[in-house]
Every structure is written in C-alpha cells, then in structure tokens.
Design brief:
The structure is a homodimer of 645-residue chains. Chain A is mainly α. Chain A has three domains: 99 residues, no CATH class; 82 residues, Butyryl-CoA Dehydrogenase, subunit A, domain 2 (Beta Barrel), CATH 2.40.110.10; 330 residues, Butyryl-CoA Dehydrogenase, subunit A, domain 3 (Up-down Bundle). Chain A has 23 helices and nine strands. In chain A, the strands form four sheets. In chain A, strands 1-5-4 form a three-stranded antiparallel beta sheet, with no helix packed on it. In chain A, strands 2-3 form a two-stranded antiparallel ribbon. Chain A has a two-stranded antiparallel ribbon with strand order 6-7. In chain A, strand 2 and strand 3 form a beta hairpin. In chain A, helix 7 runs antiparallel to helix 8 and helix 8 crosses helix 19. The longest helix of chain A is centred in the middle third of the chain and has 40 residues. About 2% of the residues of chain A have low confidence. At the A-B interface, helix 3, helix 4, strand 4, helix 8 and helix 9 of A face helix 3, helix 4, strand 4, helix 8 and helix 9 of B. Chains A, B: GO terms for molecular function: FAD binding; fatty acid binding; pristanoyl-CoA oxidase activity. Chains A, B: Keywords: FAD, Fatty acid metabolism, Flavoprotein, Lipid metabolism, Oxidoreductase, Peroxisome. Chains A, B: One of its GO terms (cellular component) is peroxisome. Chains A, B: Its main location: other.
C-alpha cells in the first residue's frame, strides 16, 4: 500500500517511533495502516491529522490539562482553548449536517484531547442545553452557565391571560450582561462547584425572581402566543409533540455513546502499550516477561479492546441512523416509517448509552488496575478518563432508569403482534428477528469444541435465543404481577431487576454484536484484515455472552458441563490469538502521543524513560514544601491535648 | 435500654436530629442503639465518640479536605493534622498490642475522617514503609517520603568483604537533614506527583549515589554483620525467614481489608440516606415517592449495605486472628500450629484484600451512580471515597496476582491429603470442611421456594459445594496442563482465569459468609436484633452466591429453571424486607455528620437545604471568574486560524 500523504508531503499515518514496542509491533498478523484506512476512511484520517496537528503546534494547547490544574485555571484555559477552536473553524457549523463523518471525527479529536473542551465547544455550537432534573425550584447543572453563559433556554409552564396552562415551553432568557458578565436584575446565577470530572466546564445554576421575558423570546417551534395573548400550535396532538422531542433526546444519548467509546479507546491504548512493555516475573529468576504474556492480563484487557472496536462501529452506524431521523424531522416527514424510526432509535439510544458508558466505566477501571501503581499516578490519565466518563452513566437519563424505555419498546412489539398479528419489523431491522420468536425459543446450543465458537455467528444465534427468552419471561412476569392486582406502576417496577433490565441490555448487546459481525464479514473487508477483525468480533460477542451463562443454562439453551467450558476456552483461545496483534490494533485507534498524554502509553514504549521525564517535570518535585519549617521546628508534644477517654 | 452516657453526661449515642428522615427511622423493625451496642461494644462506642468529638471541636480539622484542596495545601494541612493527632495521643503506641479493639476503632475514626491522615499517622506509628515494586533503580511510592521523611528503611543486597552476597536486608538510611529538610549528600529525593487519591499523603522516590551506611544501621532482626565483616544469622533456613515475613505481609493486607470496609460503610450511608429522602416519579403525576421505594434502587444498594456489615465483621475477626499470630511471633513461638496459622492468615488476607477492595470499589461506584448528578458533585464525597479506595486494589500486591496465594494454599491442602492421607484442618478451621470434599461434591440444591433461601445456611451449603467443585476443577486442569508438557510456570498461568481465580474468591466469600452466619446466629444476639441481622446475613450470602449461578448449573448443583428463579426471588424478597430498616442500619455504622462530610448524607435528611447551604459556601460561587474580561472583550474571529484541510 502506497503511503497516504498530506499536501505538505508528510505521511497521513506516520510510522510509530522506534523503541521497545517495535518488537511487539513486528509480531502483528496484519498491516495496521491498512486497517486504519479501512476503519476510518481516507478523508477522516486526513481531517483528524489536521486537527491533531493544529492542537499540537499551538502553545495554548500545551499541557497540563485535567485534574492537575486548579478549577479556576482549568476553566480559564478551557475557555481560551474553546475560543481558539472557533478560530480554527475545522468544520463550519453550516456544513455539519452534510459531513456527518467529519462531525464524528471532530467530536472524537476534541474529546480525545479533553472532554471539558469538546463539551464546551459543542454546547456553543448547538445552543444546546444539557437537560437536567430540577433542583427543586432552581435550574442546576446547566453547562457553561457557571461562569460564562449570557443567555439560557428555560423550560417553563406557559400560561396565557385567563390563566390557561399550555404545558412546558422553552423561553430564551438573558441571564448576564455580555459586556460585564454580571447577572441581570432578578437573576441569581452561579457555579455549582467542583465535580468529579470535566471541571474545565463551568456547570451552573440559576434562580429567577419575577424576570420579565418578551413574548418574542418564546422559542416557538411547536407552539406560539399571538400578540393578543392567544395560544397557537401547529402540532396536532400531545403524542406527536412528544414524539418530536424523542428525536432530540436521542441525539444527546447517541453523543454519549460516542463519548464513552472514545474514553474506552484511550484507556485500552494506555493499558495495552504499558502491558506490552512492563515486565514482571518469569519462568526463571533471571528472565522477566511482559505482563501481556500472562493469560490473566490478556483476559482483563483484550475483551475491552474488542469492545472498543465493536462499540465504535455501533456508534458510527447509530450516528448515521440518527442523521436520517434528523433529516426527516427537518423535512417535516410525517410518515409512519419516520415515526417508527424515531421509536427504534429511541430504544437503541436508551440502552446504547447505558451499555457504552458502563462498558467504558468498567473498562477504564480494569485498565487502571491492570497498570498497577502506574495507573494510579494522575499523570498517566486513567483517573481523568474515569472521572470524565462518569457522568455518561447519569446525565441524559440515569442508565438503570433509561433501560426501561428499551424494554417497553420490545414488550410493546410483542403485544402488538399478538396471536396471528402483524409481522414484527422496524426500519433499521434490529427487531425483525423477533418474528421468529417461537422458533428461536426452540433452539439449543450445538457447539461441542472451542473451535466451534471462534466465529461470532455462534454467539449471535445464542443472543437471539437469549433476547427471546428474556422477552417471554418479562412478558409473563408482567402479566402475573398485573393479574395479582398490582397497579401498572407497581407491576412494572417489580419486573425491572431480573427481567426488563437484562432484556434491554441483552437486546442492545445483540444489536452491537450483529452490526459488528456484519461489518467484519462483508466482502469488502481487505483479505489481510479478515482474520483479526473476525477474532475481535468473536471475542466481543463471546465475552459479552458469557455474562449471561446462568440464563443460558437456566432456560435450557445450554446443557451439560461441556457447553460452559467450551465458551470459556474459546474466550481464552481468542485472547491468545489476539495478544500479538494488540499493539498494532492500538496503533489504529490511539491518537498521537501529544493527545493521548500518558507517559506509560507513549507509542515508543520507553516506559521508564518517559515516566522519569514526566515525574521530574511535575511541579516542585525536588523542592522542599513551602511549609517545611513547620515540620522541622515544631515537634508535636505527644499527649499534650489528650482528651479524657 | 437506659441511654449510655459519657462522664460529661452527654449521651454516647445521641438521637439523630429531627428532619425528613424521621419518617424512615420510625419504620425500622429494631432499636438501632441496641444494635450499635451489640456491634461495637460499649468501650469502643465511647472511644470513637471521644475521637470524633475532638476532631469536630478542633478548628484545624474544619473542612475542606480531600480533592477540593490544592495538593500543596492539602499536604500541609494533612501534616499539621497528623501532628495534632499525636498531641491528642488517643491511644499510646505502647498500649496498642493490648487494646486491639481500640486500634481498630482508631484506624476507623481517622480513616472515616480522611485516609490521607490515617495513613500518614500509622506510617509514623509503625516506622513502617509501604513496600512497592522497584521503579527500575529507584525506590518509588514510599509513603511520607515525598516531602517530609528524614530516614528510610531500604532493602538492599548485603555483600560482606570478599564479595559474598547474603540476600536482601533492611538498612536505615538518612535521606534528609531533620533541621532543614534538605536532602543528604548523594541522595536525590522527591515527590512522585499527583495521584488519583490520598493526595494529602506525600509519596516519594529516592535514588542513592554511593551513600555510606554505618554498619550499625543494618536492621538486624534476622541477620547481622560483625565488626570484622562476618555475617551471622539466628534464622536457620531461608524458608523460615520467608515464613516470618509472611506475617508482616499479612498485616498490610488485613489493614487494607479494614480500609475498604470503612469506605464502603461511608458510601452506603450517603447513598441510602439520599435514597430515603430523594423523591422521583410516582404512581400519579402528583405524588412522588422516595427512590428507595423502587425495587431497582433497593437491589442496587441494599446488598452493599449487607456487604458492609458482613465484611466489617470479617475484618474485625481477622484482625484478632492476626493479633494472635503477632503475639506468637513476638513470643518466638516455633510450633507447627504457629506456622500453620501464618499460612492460613496469609491465604485469608491474600484473598480478603481483593474481595474487600473490589466490593468497596464496585459499591462506591454503584452508590455514586445511584445518587445521580448529586453523586457527581465533589462535595458529596463519593468521588473522594472512590479515589481513596482505589489503591487498595493495587498496593500490597495486585488483587489478581495476590489471589494466586490463596488458590495455591488450597491446592496444597488437597495434595497433602491425597488418597487416605491426613485430615484437612487448620488453626482457624476455615478449611476443615474440605475434609468432606467427596461428600460435598455429591450434594444438590434442594430449595424449591424463595422462603427456603431466607436463611444463610442455604447459601452456606451451596458455597461449600462451589469451593469443592472449583478446587476439583482447578486440580484437574493443573494436572492436565502439566501432563501436556508445560512448565510449572506456564501451567499455573494457564489455570488462573476460570479456575484458580474464582476458587480463591469463592473460598473467601464462603469464609465471610460463614463467619457472619455464625455471628448472627449465636445465642447472645439480643432477640430484637435477630431478624434484621439474619436478613443481612442471608442477603449478603445469596447476592454473592448469585454471581456464581452459572457454575452451580454447570456442575449440576442447580438443575431446572426453578432453582435460579427462587434465588433471584429470595434476593428481592430480602431487599423488600430490609428497605424499612435501611436508614436505622445506616445510623449504626455512619459517623457523625461532621466526619461523614456529605451534604446529601446528613442525618436529618434535609436534602435540598443541606445542598444549597453547601453550594453557596463553596469558593467564589457567585463571583465572576478572574478572567471574565477575556470573555467579554475578545470575541473569537471564527476561521481566522483555519488550517488547510
């Protein structure tokens, strides 16, 4: 493959620097640049290179960032960096709807640098406000509101003269004077304080005391008030208004899937490069082996590498699906298909956000632990990744609560079908398999050796059975609870833990597995990449499925000791097959060293050199503490303050 | 029960303040003060009260603490607080070995306030150095070394004249001048930089360049050098020297079990008080219910409450076992029993640390998520708890690696027994059940309704089967791997993931379950406490066991759909039975509000009042940022820096 070059003549994908990781790279079974090209496409690779280079060459983006700064300094730098990104104008706002892959790449590049920056930037681009629950009477958590926002969109009950209430409507409210940044009369606005992560972003609260809002500042997409005080709406029924809002809810959740995937990619990149260079113990006292040679270390990390690939593909495909939905909304498409698409994407994003954010949360934690004490040093970035990923589990809907949206969608499909009812199908075909519900429930696992499981078609079939089983169990349980006299509210709540919750997650895992399976088995996959991609697909599928082994046995899909054992053996076999490809697979997804910003994750693998350099560059490493004299002068008088015990 | 009073007349257990949590407390099935007395004992309650009061009344301990301070300020405050704790002299060092329950209470009280303080204090008390892997040539991670230590114990190869090497020996090395805190000649000593947590503690590194150490600074407990340069040792063989060091390794690991339990107690206290007051959704639009009323929220949190009690009891009992071991070491007990006790405690602490630190890690994360956005605010402390708990998974041996010590111990017992061999028994009787290995493997689960599982004797029996099954599987797998021609090193590594690792964890879970079961079923449990304690015991046991359902089915202990379903139903039934006791159970283990330091976890349950007060007390909440003019004056010129894409 001829090297891709930028117009400057620089290669778009430069060779990694020489160093100890060279040995690990030489063992890879495939050419990593070819995978990068297949995975990203040429335009995206060039675009990402341009963004990364601009940041690296601009002193404003020089380190430090994240938790090693004071909150005030961090917010200032983040604000200045955000302004600078506008000056770079990598992708004009007007072009975004027509360049979805570049939007994806821009989110990813800025997020890989720092989520505080990416979120602040996109909040500006979209005039978009993070929806958060009320903090009783006040608005709380609003992004950019803590220190900088001058206007806010506030949802309030709209009353027209005569006292009639038309429900929640959005209003544009000025909260600060843009010249002085002082609050407007009647507005109390402030910063909510330090959070676990993303502290470059100023989240704020606001309280309003009889603030007057001009009529024209009602944001009138779905309803308006005439100068005479009458209410008019072009949306016929509340249901349709609700359905429109589903689309915008999905956008936030799909974005969070992407944020989670980026965090997971960064974490596995750091941990796998570390594991390929860090040596510990060995067959003899003299010889220490890289920790990635241990099956335990492989099993801890490689499934998360596979998950990063599988979820990355899922995110990109869901983002394109969402683009289709948004095009329909803009074009005022009122077709049945458009409504069905909205429901399907709502179901996918409502379980996709939990699955992706939890996988990232657990993956980052595993990476942190797999790097031992080095992972606990702030400079190696795994702490910031964990902290910045954490809100993904909570905002835009708590994960556990959100999963109910997906199980409700699936139960609704089953109910609509009924005996002899309509086919089950959906625009994106994620639920079409449910049409074979009864047949699928009759399936049994037939593999008898680990080799039978080395392709993702086997776990795919098992997942179809699992989703049908959980759907039947959930449906029966819900009916029982209702028949026993419980209210709908109570009955649904009593079905969540062991029924609806695993149903929603298993359905989403199936969807991710199916899409990754199809992507890795399509004819246009270049032959040198087929084996490694199929291994990733099988590993992610089997590893995910192995969380459900108890249900596979309980429902009779598995029987006998052998089934469970071959599943385990297949996972370990895939880990062993992939271990020599791990560093090259990381080269495909890791950003340049400057962006990755982790001494133990640098591409050359000069672990100790990089660590020492970074340690000695920290603040006041060798200096005495400013309070040293306190230590040397005033010795404690032991017991001088002893209380009566 | 007459109220306990201090000599001042104040009650040792004051009533909780009035507030919204009063309703939840009134529903409890048992008197919480009686449980506090049973759980802690009167002397410990008084002792803890005295420590907590001293800290609360001393302005030096006023907030803030933890991640809301700069590292430099935090280290200074932590150092001053540590000095002050010496002045309080709550428990003279010389009394510690005779007052183990008070040592426990002191660790817990200081740790509940702040682990940075507790660790700094105990590092001083024990002249104890955290052992950490070499950072190639340097010592790295040493607690207190970053800014303050003047002397360090360094392990180095001891060579005597003639070049003979006697292995690793400890030396006392002066690293800083105590008057100036400047480094000694030839010593480079510094701070390793910011960590994810415990930043009040100054961890350091040191490198030595031809530093001379006087002969008398060889710490000569096991070996010495005469003035003429000859090596003498009173320890006969390397094996015994190794066995002595096991005892000191166990101390660190047992302490970490306790640290993890404290973190878990604090986290569940915060999350459960929040959940009993935070209302969301409800059967009608008008009526919102506390989130603890939802079975999902109960299932997310109550098993961790049960785990906090079960592991707390395990920790205390293991600490007393360790005390017995240390007494033997001090008394130079060379009996077989003493050696066996050392091995057993080594096995228990090597899996106890992983089990406790991981349970705390997952529990804190669940609590963080269960509190939604409020859990993500730094002031509510769940972030600091997670960060301060995190090193527990890593130091004193990485959890995953450490588990090998326990599985090796169990496999060794099986091998020693052989066909017709000696009884399997141990000083603490944790492995005596293995003597019935073959019979136990023949057992089958017999419960058929959830009621059959509401006592922890049922999961206890299941755990015995599970450990025997995993022991047999591990033994067979290891033999197979060795027969296939693999080296011992390779064979053992290939048995970890699905064999030795779950074996070690299941054995420890069984031990925790057994000790908690016995503690809650003993005749001296006051009758009003029996029901609630037995429910906690059953919930912890069943919930832990439910992670292994796949193995119970695979190995034939469970069969049919019903077994798995009754296990799930029993867990949910216990959660429902315990939900009204949750707040009172928290009152028993939570420290006073000042120590807990979490607005959403305060004992009165005035959620929003407490939050608003705390938010408005934060730094510069309503002030403009110092850099406000940058925002108002220099608008970005969009695209002015646009790179060529």
């Amino acid at each position: 493959m001829a090297p891709l070059r930028e117009s400057s003549g620089d290669p778009v994908l430069p060779d990694p620097p020489q160093g100890p990781l060279h040995v690990a790279r030489a063992r890879a079974s495939f050419p990593w640049k070819e995978l990068a090209l297949f995975w990203e496409g040429e335009d995206t690779l060039r675009f990402k290179k341009a963004i990364f280079s601009a940041l690296e060459n601009d002193p404003l983006f020089a380190h430090p960032r994240g938790s090693r700064l004071s909150v005030e300094k961090y917010q200032e730098l983040n604000f200045l960096r955000c302004k600078r990104v506008f000056e770079y104008d990598f992708l004009p706002v007007g072009d975004m709807l027509d360049s979805l892959p570049r939007v994806l790449a821009l989110i990813e590049c800025l997020g890989m640098y720092d989520w505080s920056l990416a979120v602040k930037f996109f909040l500006h681009v979209l005039e978009f406000i993070i929806h958060s629950p009320d903090f009783e009477a006040a608005k709380f958590w609003v992004g950019n509101m803590g220190k900088t926002a001058t206007h806010a969109v506030v949802f309030a009950q709209l009353y027209t003269p005569g006292g009639q209430c038309h429900g929640l409507h959005p209003f544009l409210v000025q909260i600060r004077d843009p010249k002085t940044l002082l609050p407007m009369p009647g507005v109390m606005v402030g910063d909510i304080g330090k959070k676990l992560g993303q502290n470059g972003l100023d989240n704020g609260f606001a309280m309003f005391h009889k603030v007057r809002i001009p009529r024209q500042d009602l944001l009138n997409r779905s309803g308006d008030v005439t100068p005479e005080g009458a209410y008019v709406t072009h949306v016929k029924d509340v249901g349709q208004r609700f359905s429109e809002s589903l689309g915008s809810l999905s956008s936030g959740r799909v974005a969070i899937v992407g944020m989670s995937v980026v965090n997971l990619k960064l974490a596995v990149s750091i941990a796998l490069r570390f594991s390929a260079t860090r040596r510990q113990f060995g067959p003899t006292d003299k010889e220490e082996v890289p920790v990635l040679q241990y099956p335990m270390q492989q099993w801890r990390l490689l499934p998360y590498l596979a998950a990063a690939y599988a979820l990355d593909h899922f995110f990109k495909s869901l983002f394109l699906d969402l683009g289709e939905l948004q095009q329909g909304l803009l074009g005022k498409d009122r077709s049945v298909r458009q409504a069905e698409l909205g429901r399907e994407i709502h179901a996918l994003s409502s379980a996709g956000k939990p699955l992706a954010s939890w996988t990232a949360q657990r993956g980052i934690q595993e990476c942190r632990e797999a790097c031992g004490g080095h992972g606990y040093l702030a400079m190696n970035r795994l702490g910031d990744l964990r902290d910045d990923n954490d809100p993904n589990c909570t905002y835009e809907g708590d994960n556990s609560v959100l999963l109910q949206q997906t199980s409700r969608y699936l139960l609704g499909l089953l109910a609509r079908r009924g005996p002899g009812g309509a086919r089950i199908e959906s625009p994106l075909k994620t639920v079409d398999f449910l049409d074979g519900y009864a047949d699928i429930l009759g399936r049994r696992f037939e593999g008898s050796s680990p080799e039978d499981l080395l392709d993702s078609s086997v776990p795919l079939a098992a997942y179809e059975w699992l989703v049908c089983y959980l759907l039947r169990e959930s449906h029966q349980k819900l009916s029982r609870e209702k028949r026993s006299g419980k209210s709908d509210f109570e009955a649904i709540n009593d079905c969540q833990v062991y029924h609806c919750r695993p149903l929603a997650l298993a359905f989403l895992e199936l969807t991710v597995v199916r899409r990754f399976h199809e992507h890795t088995h399509q004819p246009r996959v270049p032959p040198p990449l087929r084996a490694v991609l199929r291994r990733l697909s099988a590993l992610y599928a089997l590893w995910s499925l192995s969380q459900h082994t108890a249900l596979l046995y309980r429902g009779g899909y598995f029987s006998g000791e052998r089934a469970g054992k071959v599943l385990e053996s297949a996972i370990l076999a895939l880990c062993a097959q992939l271990k020599d490809d791990a560093v090259a697979l990381v080269d495909v997804i890791a950003p340049p060293d400057f962006i990755l910003d982790s001494p133990i994750g640098r591409a050359d693998g000069e672990l100790y050199k990089n660590l020492w350099t970074a340690v000695l560059q920290e603040n006041k490493v060798l200096e005495r503490a400013s309070w040293w004299a306190e230590f040397a002068v005033n010795k404690p008088v032991i017991g001088s303050l002893k209380p009566k015990l």
